[in-house]
Write a structure and sequence with these properties.
Pfam family, one: Glyoxalase
Number of strands: 19
GO molecular function: lyase activity
Distance between the termini: 48 Å
Radius of gyration: 19 Å
Oligomer: single chain
EC number: 4.4.1.5
Strand order of the largest sheet: 4-17-18-19-16-5-8-7-6
Largest sheet: 9 strands, mixed
Function: Catalyzes the conversion of hemimercaptal, formed from methylglyoxal and glutathione, to S-lactoylglutathione.
Strand content: 25-35%
Order of helices and strands: EEEHHEHEHEEEEHEEEEHEEEHEEEH
Mean pLDDT: 75
Shape: globular
Keywords: Lyase, Metal-binding
Length: 354
C-alpha cells in the first residue's frame, strides 16, 4: 500500500534544533509497505521522494589539508580528532536567510568516492559488467595516489563514481555501514551473468521484488562493494543511488532535511541520483571501514554553505577554502553518524572538467 502525505520541510544540510519550519516548502513523502527481500535489509521502509543534496568535485582532492591524506585508509582516532563541533560564525547570515539561500543554491549530487585495491582491475570490471565509461583518469605520484572517474555520461550532467587507488594498498575494510550502490540496467540477468564471468560475486539472483513487476539482484565487485541492480531501460540516471546505514533514522533525516524514510535527493527520484538511509532496528553504530569516502555535492558558495551548517550546530570537518595545487574551493561536513559530505564550488568544478 502506498500512501502519500505532505509535510513541511526546510532546505538541506541544517540541523533544526532551534526553531520550527512550518513555513517552509512541502515535499512529497511516500510510505511504501513493499520492502526488499534483501537479507540484511531492515523491515523499516519509509520513503521520501524529494530532497536536496548536492554536487561534487573529483574525490582525489576533496578532503582535508591534503587530499591524499583524507583518501588514504583513515584511522578512526585521526578522523575523530580532526572533526570539530563548531559554533555559529559571527556573520550577517541568520537562520531565516540561511534557509532561504540554501533553497536557491544550485545543488546536485556529483559523484561518490571510494577506495579500491587495483584501479585498472576495477575499471575493467565496471566497464565490462556495468557498462560504465571511463571518463577520466589521473595519477598524482607526489602524493602517491591515482583517481579514475566512471559513469554513464559527462560529469557535468551525470552522477559518477570516483575511484581512488592509494599506492601500496591493495585491500580495504568495507565495513557494514555502506549498504550498496544502485544501478538501473536494461537486463538484470545479463549483468548478473557478466559479473559471474568477470570474477564478481552474486549475492542474490534476479527475482521479482515482493511480487511486483520490478526485477532486482545484488552483486559484489572484486573489492567487495555491493551493487543493487534493477531493470529499467533508458534510465536518465543509471547510477541511481547510494544507500548508507544510520543509527537513528529520525535524527539523520532531520539533518539531511526530510521527514520519513530514506530516499533523499535534489529532484524527482526517477530522474536524479538519490541518497538512501537505512535503519536496522536495534543497531545504532556501524563499522564504516576505510573504503568508502564521501559523496560530493556542488554549491554556488562553499563559504555560505559552511556558515549555514555551523549556524544550525552542524559539524564541519574542513573549513571552506581552496585545495592546494588546484584551487578548487570545498568544505566538508559530517552527518550525525559521521558520514562525510563534501561541498564543491560549482564554477571551480566545471573548470576542472576543462
Amino acid at each position: 500500500m502506498l500512501t502519500r502525505i505532505m509535510v513541511p520541510v526546510p532546505s538541506p544540510f541544517s540541523l533544526p534544533k532551534k526553531r520550527s519550519f512550518s513555513s517552509q516548502c512541502s515535499f512529497k513523502v511516500s510510505f511504501d509497505d513493499n520492502q526488499s527481500n534483501e537479507t540484511y535489509c531492515s523491515n523499516f521502509s519509509r520513503r521520501l521522494a524529494l530532497f536536496q543534496l548536492g554536487t561534487a568535485i573529483p574525490q582525489s582532492q576533496v578532503l582535508g589539508v591534503k587530499a591524499s591524506e583524507l583518501l588514504r585508509p583513515a584511522e578512526s582516532t585521526v578522523e575523530t580528532n580532526n572533526v570539530r563541533n563548531v559554533a555559529a560564525m559571527n556573520s550577517n547570515l541568520t537562520e531565516d536567510s540561511a534557509l532561504q539561500w540554501a533553497k536557491k543554491d544550485k545543488r546536485k549530487m556529483l559523484h561518490v568516492v571510494y577506495r579500491v585495491g587495483d584501479l585498472d582491475k576495477t575499471i575493467k570490471f565496471y566497464t565490462e559488467c556495468f557498462g560504465m565509461k571511463l571518463l577520466r583518469k589521473r595519477d598524482i605520484p607526489e602524493e602517491r595516489y591515482s583517481n579514475a572517474f566512471l559513469g554513464y555520461g559527462p560529469e557535468d550532467s551525470h552522477f559518477t563514481v570516483e575511484l581512488t587507488y592509494n599506492y601500496g594498498v591493495d585491500k580495504y575494510n568495507i565495513g557494514n555501514g555502506l549498504r550498496h550502490f544502485g544501478i538501473r540496467v536494461d537486463s538484470v540477468e545479463k549483468v548478473v551473468n557478466l559479473v559471474k564471468a568477470k570474477g564478481g560475486k552474486v549475492i542474490k539472483e534476479p527475482a521479482l521484488l515482493n511480487g511486483s513487476s520490478k526485477v532486482i539482484a545484488y552483486v559484489e565487485d572484486p573489492d567487495g562493494y555491493k551493487f543493487e541492480l534493477s531493470k529499467e531501460a533508458t534510465a536518465p540516471e543509471p547510477l541511481h543511488h547510494v544507500m548508507l546505514c544510520v543509527g537513528n533514522l529520525d535524527r539523520s533525516i532531520n539533518f539531511y532535511k526530510k521527514y520519513a524514510e530514506v530516499t533523499l535527493g535534489y529532484g524527482a527520484e526517477d530522474m536524479n541520483p538519490v541518497l538512501k538511509l537505512a535503519y536496522n532496528y536495534g543497531i545504532s553504530v556501524y563499522d564504516k571501514g576505510d573504503g568508502y569516502a564521501q559523496i560530493a555535492i556542488g554549491t554556488d558558495d562553499v563559504y555560505k554553505t559552511a556558515e549555514a551548517i555551523k549556524l544550525f550546530d552542524g559539524m564541519i570537518a574542513r573549513e571552506p577554502g581552496p585545495l592546494p595545487g588546484i584551487n578548487t574551493k570545498i568544505t566538508v561536513c559530517l552527518d550525525p553518524d559521521g558520514w562525510k559530505s563534501v561541498f564543491v564550488d560549482n564554477v571551480d568544478f566545471l573548470k576542472e572538467l576543462e
